[in-house]
Amino acid sequence: MDESLLIEALAGRLLSGVLLFLYLGWGVYTLRLRFRFHEELRPAVEAVTLALVALFYSLEMYLLKAYLGPMHVYLVFAVLGLFVSGAALYGPMFISLSSRLLVDMVMPAERSQTHEPQYQFAEALERDSDYEGAIQEYKVIARVFPRDADALMRVAENYAKLSQIEEAAGWFERALKQLDSAEKSLAVTNRLCEMYHRTLDRAQDAERVLEAYLDKFPEAEYASSVRQRLERLKAEG
């Protein structure tokens, strides 16, 4: 094989490998954010990510055809593998972005333009014990007001009422990141710590939550009690 063609082939395979690593790594990272911590990327970041995934597909298809040939049987399996992995890694992101755009399109103008969250409908569902319906309404509010910790906590509380503690813990974690009050953060931290320690039997996560509180509010009035609880947890472990 001509030396220049060999170098070109090696460069193409190296580029393909690097892009595949980034494709898989970013996909796993975003899935972990979504399903472990219930965090979503900003719509603009999701849109750019999906556009780059489409570009990656185009480049991979070009390279696969160049090295395998347009009719090679392995090409079919390679393309199938790409799209299956894409559905698993980036399907939730596509659905999330699509749903956000849909909400923006169908939401009444007066509701979308308000500067304050409107909880009345969700609260009515909650009073009727329709916790799943309330969760969906609170999630809509959380998307419109992503820095509103109260909406996030309401989602968590309703998941807890459904005994879906894993889901509740993820939303409480997300709410903690938006809270700037040491007192309010303490209440959520203690609730979350109890969930992890007693209900989910995840002592390490309970310790992590307490340590995060101390990192954020090292001089808070309640820091000493949090340190004592953390020490007790570590002693038990």
Count of helical regions: 11
What CATH first level of the largest domain would be assigned? Answer: Mainly Alpha
Strand content: under 5%
- For the CA atoms, what is the radius of gyration? 23 Å
Overall spatial form? globular
Q: Which class do the helix and strand fractions yield?
A: mainly alpha
Q: Could you report the average pLDDT, rounded to the nearest whole number?
A: 84
Largest sheet: none
What CATH calls the topology of the largest domain is Serine Threonine Protein Phosphatase 5, Tetratricopeptide repeat
The CATH architecture of the largest domain: Alpha Horseshoe
Helix content: over 70%
Q: What's the total number of strands?
A: 0
Order of helices and strands: HHHHHHHHHHH
Q: CATH homologous superfamily of the largest domain?
A: Tetratricopeptide repeat domain
pLDDT under 50 segments (min length 5)?
109-113
Taken together, the total number of domains comes to 2
Distance between the termini: 62 Å
Q: What topology emerges from the helices and strands here?
A:
Layout: H1 3-36, H2 43-68, H3 73-106, H4 109-112, H5 120-127, H6 131-144, H7 149-161, H8 165-176, H9 182-199, H10 203-216, H11 223-236
Helix pairs in contact: 1-2, 1-3, 2-3, 5-6, 6-7, 7-8, 8-9, 9-10, 10-11
What distinguishing features does this structure have?
Serine Threonine Protein Phosphatase 5, Tetratricopeptide repeat; single chain; mainly alpha; 237 residues; 2 domains
